[in-house]
Amino acid sequence: MLAVATKAAGWEWHVQGKHPALADFITLGRQCPVSRGLAIWIARSFSRLGSGAAPAEVAAGNRGNGCWQFWIAGASPDALICGCLAASTDSFGRPYPLLLLGRGSLPGWRECWSELPPALCSTWAAMATIAHSGFGSIRELKQAVAAVPAPVAPREPDEARAVSQDGRLRFRERQASDAKAIEGEIAGCLPKDEARQSALWLARHADRHAAPTAVFLGRCGQSTLLWLYARPLGPEDFLSMWSRQAMRGSHGTP
């Protein structure tokens, strides 16, 4: 495991998986219980895709926008884990997801959890750029990871909700069968508006729910998909998100 010297005070970065610029499975940065748990979740879930057509769809997702942005609640009140999970391959074309993860403290985020998408926007953007950029060496990759900016403090909910919703957007959602997961869709959402509109969607639930266990969001065609979890993640969650992201995102259909 290779250490990463970070410029973001109080935050640590971890990278694990395959990157198209490198030949081997990579692990950068110190692991934590959440990163280890996510690595196991990814490995077990990805293995269920089999060796047939599904990996080809994952590889196709890497050529499109197959990237889920996420945040996960930490063990202490201010602890937060954020990152990107990208469809990827190594330099030989062998598919496997790339996990980029940061962990640190963001005081007060549980009171403003619906506002995390804008607060994490720059961090997520830097991670997504790393996932889809070419690097000549592992050293260049480490330098890029070290330069990822830390999240900023989320805005107060009342200030955020004063922002008007674009009337062209259509919010859709459905409850999962276990009632502890909600899937949402923002149809017609432009990439530049994704963080703001995602916060508005989450604000619809903030008055009724405490901070969830995890939130994932990703671009699929002309829509943004969001998943809100109030329970631990399971293999079916990965498969459901991954199939929609790789298959819809790569073909550009809403």
Automatic annotation (TrEMBL):
Q: Which domain of life is it from?
A: Bacteria
Could you identify this protein by its name? Type VI secretion-associated protein, BMA_A0400 family
